[in-house]
User: Which sequence fits this backbone?
C-alpha cells in the first residue's frame, strides 16, 4: 500500500537514555502554501535534538512533514506548530528547529525556535550548527 501524508508522529524508546547525545536531521523538501496567494513555499528544515526517553521514527516524520504540502500557513506559524508537535511527541531534553525558506519576492526567511526541558542542564558542550551565510537555494 502506498504511503500518504499523516500528522501522526511515532516514536521509539531511546536506546541510550542514560546519556545526552545530539541527533541532527536535515529535511530539504518541506513545502506548504502561502496563506495569502496559495503559491507553494519551499524550505529546508534543520532539526537538532537531545532525546530523553523517546526518539522520532523517521518514516512517520517524513509523512508528517509531507502533510503540510497543501496547508496554507505562514512561515512563523508552521515552524512553531512543528516544534510544538515534536515536543509533545518526544518530550526531549532539548530541541531546535530551523526553517530556512527559499527566496520569495526577493526575501529569504529563516525561523529558529527551540525548547529546553524544565530543569535539564547540559552535561557536556553541545555544538549545534549555526546558519553560515544565506544558502536557501538548491545547488
Assistant:
Amino acid at each position: 500500500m502506498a504511503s500518504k501524508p499523516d500528522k501522526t508522529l511515532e516514536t521509539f524508546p531511546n536506546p541510550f537514555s542514560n546519556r545526552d547525545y545530539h541527533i541532527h536531521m536535515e529535511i530539504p523538501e518541506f513545502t506548504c502554501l502561502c496563506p495569502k496567494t496559495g503559491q507553494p513555499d519551499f524550505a529546508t528544515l534543520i532539526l537538532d535534538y537531545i532525546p530523553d526517553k523517546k526518539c522520532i521514527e523517521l518514516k512517520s516524520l517524513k509523512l508528517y512533514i509531507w502533510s503540510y504540502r497543501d496547508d496554507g500557513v505562514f512561515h512563523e506559524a508552521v515552524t512553531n506548530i512543528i516544534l510544538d508537535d515534536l515536543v509533545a511527541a518526544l518530550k526531549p531534553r532539548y530541541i531546535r528547529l530551523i526553517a530556512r525558506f527559499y527566496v520569495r519576492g526577493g526575501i529569504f526567511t529563516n525561523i529558529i525556535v527551540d525548547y529546553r526541558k524544565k530543569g535539564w542542564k547540559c552535561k557536556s558542550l553541545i555544538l549545534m550548527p549555526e546558519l553560515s551565510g544565506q544558502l536557501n537555494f538548491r545547488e
Remarks:
- The radius of gyration is 16 Å.
- The first strand starts at residue 11 and ends at 13.
